Amino acid sequence: MDISIYTIMKELNNGIELIQSDNLSFDIREVCICAESLISNEPGKNTLYILGRKQKGLLAKYNFTHILSMESLAELPESVHTYAFLPKPMSAMLLAQQIQKIINKYNDWYHNIISEMHLYQSPQDIIERCESLFPYPFAYFDTTRAMLYKTSSLKGVTQNHLWDYALSTGFAPDESYDEQLFRLIYENEKPFLYTSRNQYKGYLRLIAPIKMNQHELGCLVTNLQNMTFQMDEISSFYYIQQVFSLGLKYFGRLQSNEDNLPWYYEKILSGEHLENNVLENCVHMTGHEADERFLVWLLRKEEALPLKKAIRYLHSLFKRSNIKIYRNFIIIIDYKIAEHKEPAFLDSLQNMLQDIRYSCGVSQEFDDISFLYQAYSQALTALEYAKNNLIQAADIISKHTIRLLSEAQNISVFLHPDIVKLSKNKKNADNHLLLTLQTYLLTGLNLTTTAKKLYIHRHTANYRLETIHEITGLDFSACTTEMLMQILFSCEYFLKYD
User: Fold this and answer.
1) Do 388 and 432 reside in the same domain of the chain?
2) 255 phi and psi angles, rounded to 5 deg
3) What is the model's pLDDT at position 256?
4) Do 480 and 413 reside in the same domain of the chain?
5) Residues of the domain holding 390
6) pTM for this structure?
7) Number of domains within the chain
8) 321 lies in some domain
9) DSSP-derived pairing of the beta strands 390-392 and 47-51
10) What is the pLDDT of residue 124?
11) Crossing angle (nearest 10°) for helices 5-12 and 231-250
12) Looking at residue 176, what is its pLDDT?
């Protein structure tokens, strides 16, 4: 791992003073504690020199057991190869051993986090492991997929206006088109400092680009108001950048197969408002447009098959669709409307739902992603009527409306008297007459469809309707729309509460 000299100075914390700081980049193999007069004009490239105060000659030379490297945070002349410290009087060997322990400590941290990388499910796991290394809140903005990952200290109100703006929009104000900032991100491989040139100019930002093969994936960012970052803090941010870059390079699944939703989807689904320019920018990152037609599929498990395992099944049907986990559901934001309306596709999905014991609710079509919350709510409502089945929101509008009416306060005063009589008749002991009447009304007085939905013979359905007519005397073909609605919610009421 690349370790900065400023980290060593911070960790030693014994009054050591930095004498020469124009070199930050070299591979350390040993520490040489000596008098300044012993340093030649061309000091060793791989040696950390420590100058003894008022002392003469070579005091100690300590060889490290590992080849360790220190990386610069800026471009510096290659001819400079040395650092010099001026410690308080102390044992030269003890000082060298303390430095060795510090370097070992950070290397152990680095190797431990890398060795556990295979257990991680998303960059959020890396954020959480690195959080203790840096004293301030920070976040990772994934600019390729509009994902946002943040430290736990950013979960609530930050009292920092720049953070509040950035977390709600996905970028800093006025800087989504700042050519200077884009150029700095493109040119820099290591963390750099940046001051906004707008109303947030009192904030100093520390930005660490995350790249792969010279292609920008996103940025680690943090900021301070009316303060500056210490060099050891910048070094710590650099360590986090190294871990992040390595994690995304060697564990590409953290990028491609993550199950979490993009941050702006989560904001819309929670009912929050996003500015149009922010929304359009984020949707464009996913390869779509804000006014592109879409619908939402929402799946819930009825038995024990885990959500992530179910997603693997769904990928075989919803190829290249946005399949994610949201709360305790699988949510699919689907732009392939025509393809996924085909009977063959719906039949395949229906069979899969029965195999994996999942239920599915589907929204109506929308042509504006800002209506994602409404689409989600429709799919969630449809899901209430599904059991290892596929239910579309358009098919349950009447039934759900009637159910809401039946649950209204004091609605019992509007129950149709003939349905009250039917509910109490001994021929309706198991409510099969009420259920048949409810289905008959919901299917538009279609006898054949009623029988099919109830899985009974057409003659059986007809016999039940004749029995209902004998008990109530109602001629449904002659009823007004208002009366049919009253009869329908009366059936719903007794089926739910009787």
Assistant:
1) no
2) -90, -45
3) 47
4) yes
5) 287-395
6) 0.56
7) 4
8) yes
9) unpaired
10) 83
11) 120
12) 55
Place of tokens 């003894």: 52
Tokens at residue 337, please? 């409307």
Question: Can you give the pLDDT at residue 401?
Answer: 77
Nearest to 173 by CA among 280, 289, 275: 275
3-state secondary structure of 46: coil
With CA atoms as reference, report the closest residue to 110 among 250, 242, 255, 253.
Answer: 242
| Orientation of helix 458-472 relative to helix 432-442, angle to 10° | 100
What is the phi/psi pair of residue 299, to 5°? -115, 140
- Residue 192 burial by CB count (10 A; 0-12/13-18/19+): exposed, middle or buried? middle
Give Cβ neighbours of residue 89 (< 8 Å, ≥ 6 apart): 53
Three-state DSSP state, 182: helix
Backbone angles phi, psi at 2, to 5 degrees: -80, 115
Amino acid at the residue 177: Y
CA distances from 9 to 59, 235, 237, 330, 456 (A): 20, 11, 16, 50, 83
* Residue from 11, 15, 47, 2 nearest 28 by CA: 47
Distance CA 241, CA 249 (A): 12
The whole-number mean pLDDT for each consecutive block of 10 residues of the chain, a chain of 498 residues, reads 73 60 51 66 66 62 56 39 54 73 84 77 82 90 78 74 77 63 83 82 88 79 88 87 79 54 78 73 72 89 80 81 84 89 90 89 88 90 86 83 72 83 88 92 91 92 93 90 87 80
The answer to whether residue 272 is domain-embedded is no
d(CA 384, CA 400): 10
Q: Which residues contact 254 (CB under 8 A, 6 or more apart)?
A: 120, 121, 122, 123, 126, 247, 248
- 401's CB contacts (< 8 A; 6+ apart) are none
CA 125/CA 120 separation, integer angstroms: 6
